[in-house]
Amino acid sequence: MGTQSMDPRKLNSTPIPFFLLCSLLSLAASHEHHPLDPLTPLEQIQVQTIVKNSYPNVTFHYVGLDEPEKAAVLSWLSSSDHSNQIPDRRAFVIARDHSESHEIVVSLAEKRVVSDNVYDGYGYPVITFEEQRAATQLPLTYAPFLASIAKRGLMLDQVFCGSFTVGWYGDQESRRVVRLMCYYINGTINFYMRPIEGITFIVDLEEMKIIGYRDRVIVPVPKADGTDYRESVQKSTFDNRLKSITMLQPDGPSFTIEGHTVRWANWEFHLAFNMRSGPIISLASIYDHEENKHRRVMYRGFISELFVPYMDLTEEWYYRTFLDAGEFGFGQSAVPLQPLRDCPENAVFLDGYFATQDGTPAKISNVFCLFERYAGDIMWRHTEGALPGDLVTEVRQDVSLVLRMVSTVANYDYVIDWEFKQTGTIKVTAGLTGLLAVRGSFYTHKDQIMEEEYGTLLAENILGPNHDHFISFHLDLDIDGEPNSLVKAKLQRARVTDGRSRRKSYWKVANETAKRESDAKIHLGSGATEILVTNPNKKTKVGNDIGYRLIPRTVASRLLANDDYPQRRAAFTKYNVWVTPYNKSEKMGRRALC
Question: Can you state the subunit structure given in the record (predicted)?
């Protein structure tokens, strides 16, 4: 169960077999800077140096572009002389020093820190890979854990541990901690299917030591048989010998990439990599041949947050209510895409960079792929046979441009596609694949279960806990420019009572324009309502407002109580759509810390 929760932030008033058509490009290519370009590796090193001059022992948890004011970007975009109008380049840094979280802005032009705010609210920054690796090594030399492993008859050299954020349960936070879960690798590469249940670790990340440990109960470790997911060791029960399918473009791709700007068909947009959000799409516009100009559709679009609450109330599981972007970094968790596997033959690959714990830039090769997709689908067609002596058939192929990234956050792999269509549609999909996180169990058959187990018995001694995935997209829509309005088009049944027709009922549309933020908090699926984003100052030839529809896929709603701590922390899941006036500081909610 899950949902894709849309979050538009600026509305209301305001595959060939013998040679590979596969290119490698770098998002850090040399070109004239665009105001929204991500920081280059050289700029990240500059930021590292400037910050360390003030804080020699600092740890970096986020480094990214401090986005210029929207008005400044749009002014630059409309200027004929971009070289003289580009806003100053600045970096936004979240760092830890002496157990304090600093929000730092660095001017790259002035080579200095221009603001430094010590964050004193709830929440902590993204956990670094270095912290995760260090924490997961602690159990291997911890005497109580060694005794627990021996008591279970397991071999220590076959034990692997992972770290998990702990959520928030109303306590005043004084320590930045994680919990650890350990697994038994012996006999399989799929360690997630062999949890060592009943053991609880708490690790202080600042002191990097175990501050809490409990061995509550010994639960059988599930068997390794049949858990290896690698294709080379799979025993297939069906004939999967498929003949090859290719996507051939002998003249190369139809799109071009200049710096970070992508142009395809009538589309133009800016693409950037962000270590928290992954792909950021900016200034998406469509070229209007009649008016001989680009007309903007979206100023900025990206994943704001992913909330993954598990419904298991046991001591070793209740705290698992993860924020995958804010706690683990959805972008820094991205993985190199595999040519011909993750992306087709005609894909172009691009690299991305993020800052490691000491501020050094690290490259993720092939973090994005960009390709044209044609799967035999029809964009539009019609056959007309009613004309005397004439048969007219017109068919348009549905060819689109896809931007893809895969982020692996622990056991789950998220496949994110931004798809641009010739119809003017932007389609965003989030696919979930990878592995289940399972809990060890005493049960070998469902008939043995006599009490609530918060999930499904999947195999002997393996329970799959119930859980959700909620994905929030921040969409700053600028339909044909500014300003925009949110319109709820409600389909209403009307009765025929005046005898004007033999019909007794029909439906009509009643448009309701949101005037306040409270009008723009929407539960999808609760009624026959279409969501429109319109520009009241731009009209079609017949006088209708220019607009786009927001079309959700299958909708699911959260079921947690309003006063439950995970729900309070991820309150954005209360509604499927929130619309607010534009506010630069609200890109990921009010704060960048979770």
Answer: Homodimer.
